[in-house]
Amino acid sequence: RGRLKMTTDSVTVKAFPRPQTIFTRDPQLRAIGQQLEQSVLEQAKMGPVVYPPRSIDEAIGYLGDEGGRILVGEGIWTFYEQLVITRPNVHIQAVSPQKTVFVNKIDDAVSANEVMIVVEGDEFIIDGVRFINEENSQHQVKITGDHATIRNCVFEKFYAGSTVLGGDYARIEGNRFLDGTGGYNLALFSSSHNTIANNIFPDTTGTQLYLSDSVYKTVIVGNVFDWSSGTVSIKRTTGVQSAADIATMNVVDASNVTER
To answer: 127, 128, 219: which is closest to 170 by C-alpha?
Structure first.
């Protein structure tokens, strides 16, 4: 499940993404990463550092059933098939924010399979990763587990950015959504007890924030939406702010906030 095809000159193999471009080959940083990784293999106390030629799924495999932290180095990881994370407590941390790039190149007859990362486990965290998608119209990250955190990430050149579908207690904070081309930048469905804070949505089209009719008890504060086209669409349910409150507590043109 969730295997990715990668092609070499002589044979097609199945593997999760490996970095195709490395922005730095700092030997000191690489040595530190190797030492940390060796400590993981011997003591199983913290997650591995991902660097060539280690792949992301191999790193997740080292975490065991209880999860842990993975440090992802600088580089470009190209996804040709979907990555599904089922174990809890997986924390993906970029060593150099915005220089760790996940590129969606998935082309599947089933559109749901074109989401780059599907998270089913609880307590997931992803921090500092840059997502780029010019291949399909699906979201880059779909969260179905509880207590997930997406922070300090950049979603770039996408039709749809990130979605929470059924997971509760999500925290979406400090992210940037750039060059969106028409879909939902950030969407929540069948979810409650969420925090959406301090995100920036400059120069994107479509609905920058969408809360479905089945989203409850969710706070929206400190976000900056595009003033000319920063559409926010909400359903006034239990614990969800009114359109007027959203306009007061965020940077957005009040006329662009729709309360269904």
So the answer is: 219
**Strand 12-14 versus strand 5-7 pairing type:** antiparallel
Whether the Cβ atoms of residue 230 and residue 207 lie closer than 8 Å to each other = no
Q: Which long-range contacts (CB under 8 A, 24 or more apart) does 4-12 make?
A: 4/79, 4/80, 4/81, 4/83, 5/80, 5/81, 6/80
Please report which confidence band the pLDDT of residue 51 belongs to, taking 50, 70 and 90 as the band edges. low
The total of other beta-carbon atoms located within 10 Å of residue 153's CB is 29
- Measured from the Cβ of residue 195, the count of other Cβ atoms closer than 10 Å reads 15
> For the chain, what is the mean pLDDT?
82
**Please, are residues 234 and 212 in contact by the beta-carbon 8 Å criterion?**
no
Residue 74: Cβ within 10 Å count? 21
Alpha helices by DSSP H, listed for 111-242, are: none
What is the value of pTM for the model shown?
A: 0.81
Cα distance between the two ends of the chain: 39
Identify the sign of the CA torsion 142, 144, 145, 146.
positive
- With beta carbons less than 8 A apart as the criterion, state whether 48 and 62 touch: yes
Q: Report percent pLDDT > 70 for the chain.
A: 79
The residue that leads in pLDDT, 36 or 252, is: 252
